[in-house]
Amino acid sequence: MANHKVTVLVAGSWGTALAAVLADNDHQVKLWTRNSEQAQEINGARKNMRFLGEAALPEGIEATTDLAEALKGAEAVVFVAPSAAMREIAKLAAPYISEHTCCIHATKGFETDSLKRMTTVLAEELHRKEEELVVLSGPSHAEEVVRKQPTTVVVASSNQEAAEYAQDLFINSYFRVYTNPDVIGVEVAGAIKNIIALGAGLSDGLGFGDNAKAALITRGLAEIGRLGSAMGANMLTFAGLAGIGDLIVTCTSQHSRNWRAGSMLAKGLAVEEVLKQMGMVVEGIRTTRAAHVLAEQYDVPMPITEQLYQVLFASKPPKQAVEDLMGRGRTHEIEEVAKSWGLHQSEPPVI
Family, per the entry (predicted)? Predict the structure, then answer.
């Protein structure tokens, strides 16, 4: 692919890692941050110590605090702001983005107050149709990507041309990219898996074993599928990289912020203390609040999400939450999945 001018907003761990992938592909990469010291560190030492430690960044990344300069001439913009800041960043960036610029986001979460997906938020602030936008998601720890460890993700858009353009921007020998037309499914899976990862960290923090984690991941996938089905997703998405792939990596790795936050909650720390000690955004906490409301809105059962909501926002003891999950009424697995996912029992459930 020809060399392109690409801007990444903002310079957190994932934004920086994606900027590194783009620079490795010989694109001209501008990485925007509000922090002048961080910009100087990236440009001088070729490191982002706060988010990625000693990992070396390629020379092709130029960090800047000037948003207008960062976006000047950009052929593609990659939004990697936290979900709570996405609307603000998009609004600031909108005046400097051409109508021909490909806009991609790689943020996993919902807007807490409006419950909107990130694609919807971007479409509103950039005055674009959702069909023009692309979402990048999948099992991808920034710490591994920046070290060029093999990683595979998806780019989703109902516009195949836009998806293939994004695919070509990112794909290389260590970062494999598939396309997927199911934006809703990819965004729902990416958001809800953070909740399940909180639960996995909590389970490990309580000293439970692999049996508990396997059950949590499997039943968590069922919850993702229920909500996704109600919102209009393609069920096959949840059997792929954005679904089960991302769920596994986030629930089983100590790189995962959400796993670490859940583990700390299990040890009795309050949410505020967990966030203070982490020093970084934990999307699963915000998403739990949003998903709690969405489950009621779409009338779908999400028992793991409900118990985590009680732990996070109603001071429920983690161990009691696990006991309540295990003590739920008996049910038939295939029957329940078929009903929740809108399948006939004669069809194999995608799980």
Answer: Belongs to the NAD-dependent glycerol-3-phosphate dehydrogenase family.
- Residue 126 belongs to a domain: yes
- Residue 315 known to bind ligand: no
Q: In which domain, by residue range, is 142 found?
A: 5-181
Domain end call among 181, 204, 221 = 181
In 3D space, the residue among 190, 127, 128 whose CA is nearest the CA of residue 156 turns out to be: 190
Is 351 contained in some domain? Answer: no
Q: For residue 246, say whether it is annotated as part of any ligand binding site.
A: yes
By C-alpha distance, which of 196, 183, 218, 192 is closest to 290?
192
The one catalytic residue in 193, 267, 276, 339 is 193
pTM above 0.90, yes or no: yes
Annotation-wise, does 176 bind a ligand? no
Last residue of a domain, one of 181, 204, 220: 181
Is residue 276 part of the annotated active site? The answer reads no
* pLDDT digits (tens), the chain, 351 positions: 679 999 999 999 999 999 999 999 999 999 999 999 999 999 999 999 999 999 999 999 999 999 999 999 999 999 999 999 999 999 999 999 999 999 999 999 999 999 999 999 999 999 999 999 999 999 999 999 999 999 999 999 999 999 999 999 999 999 999 999 999 999 999 999 999 999 999 999 999 999 999 999 999 999 999 999 999 999 999 999 999 999 999 999 988 999 999 999 999 999 999 999 988 889 999 999 999 999 999 999 999 999 999 999 999 999 999 889 888 777 777 777 676 666 655 555 444
Say how many domains are in the chain: 2
Residues 282, 330: one domain? yes
